[in-house]
Design brief:
Number of helices: 14
Distance between the termini: 95 Å
Structural class: alpha/beta
CATH architecture of the largest domain: Alpha-Beta Complex
CATH class of the largest domain: Alpha Beta
Strand content: 5-15%
Number of strands: 5
Helix content: 40-55%
Strand order of the largest sheet: 1-5-3-4-2
CATH topology of the largest domain: Conserved hypothetical protein from pyrococcus furiosus pfu- 392566-001, ParB domain
CATH superfamily of the largest domain: Conserved hypothetical protein from pyrococcus furiosus pfu- 392566-001, ParB domain
Order of helices and strands: HEEHEEHEHHHHHHHHHHH
Largest sheet: 5 strands, mixed
Oligomer: single chain
């Protein structure tokens, strides 16, 4: 029988089209009500793996529910599933299957870190901040033992030993990662890109952020520093309250690796380049005299900034 004119037609929602599955033991929560975990240390990248996840959800729906905890305002905080939430937002789904857990702040941190450490690839910066968050949460829980955690957080509890065992790191390696949180973001990014060795980065982490910023500028122009160069800077700071940029450069240059490719041992100025700045009739000797005079003046001008 034909439909009456003006009869409302129910449109199929995108959730129905893409098939958000009903999963036992979980609720379907509005995506707009789920907020990222505060200071979430793991990056959500829009890379090839994310594209694969988006395609999978479009084909099959969200097969593994996310885990959230309720907030006081009625919304939710994501514990596990930031990548799935990103993918669902990309697709435009309004709801996502979620398991709701009643976690306090420290329990939420422990659950969030543990679930995300299962990822295949984890950057040094992600490990650093994740380990630090879990380390601090474990120490706080150790300070308030109860019948539920007395076996794990007892009187002789040593957070670093237990945490190292849980995350599969040696105690020394764990402490190296914990030091990375003291790096300024651009230098930590060099560690993630494997341009700066972890051991060197640990030594850099003991420098204050102002000096790290000067060091970063140096590395951009002169390649990455070596650990023994940082040792030299730290030795200088044992006897001085601070260091100027000129003094920092001097120490780094004097302690640069000794090899034939070291740019600080040999500086080449081509004849064509020099001719751009001198009259054509200037002799080699005259050009050298000018250059040394300019260098002498430069040294005098910067003498006051080195102290």
């Amino acid at each position: 029988m034909a439909k009456r004119v003006g009869q409302k037609i129910k449109m199929t929602s995108i959730d129905e089209l893409l098939g958000v599955p009903t999963i036992t033991g979980c609720d379907e929560i509005e995506v707009a009500r789920i907020h990222p975990f505060k200071d979430h240390p793991f990056k959500v990248l829009d890379d090839d793996k994310m594209h694969d996840l988006v395609e999978s959800i479009m084909m099959n729906g969200v097969l593994v529910p996310v885990t959230v905890r309720p907030l006081e305002d009625g919304d939710y905080e994501m514990i596990s599933g930031h990548r799935r939430l990103f993918a669902v937002n990309q697709i435009g789904l309004e709801k996502i299957p979620a398991i709701v857990k009643e976690y306090d702040d420290d329990e939420a941190v422990l659950a969030m870190v543990d679930s995300n450490l299962q990822r295949e690839e984890i950057l040094p910066s992600e490990k650093a901040f994740a380990y630090k968050m879990k380390y601090d949460a474990m120490r706080r829980k150790a300070g308030r033992p109860s019948k539920n955690n007395s076996s794990q957080f007892g009187r002789n509890f040593q957070t670093d030993i237990v945490l190292a065992e849980q995350v599969g790191e040696s105690r020394g390696q764990l402490h190296r990662y914990l030091r990375l949180v003291e790096l300024i973001p651009p230098i930590l990014d060099l560690v993630d890109k494997k341009a700066l060795a972890l051991a060197t980065a640990v030594e850099v982490s003991f420098l204050d952020h102002k000096i790290q910023a000067m060091l970063y500028d140096y590395m951009l122009e002169n390649d990455i520093c070596k650990t023994f160069q940082i040792f030299a800077v730290r030795d200088y700071l044992k006897e001085h309250d601070t260091i100027s940029k000129m003094e920092l450069i001097r120490i780094l240059n004097e302690n640069a690796p000794l090899n034939e490719n070291n740019r600080f041992q040999k500086i080449t100025l081509t004849k064509d380049k020099l001719r751009e700045f001198f009259p054509v009739f200037y002799t080699k000797s005259q050009m050298e005299n000018v250059l040394f005079k300019l260098l002498e003046d430069w040294k005098k001008e910067n003498a006051d900034t080195e102290g």
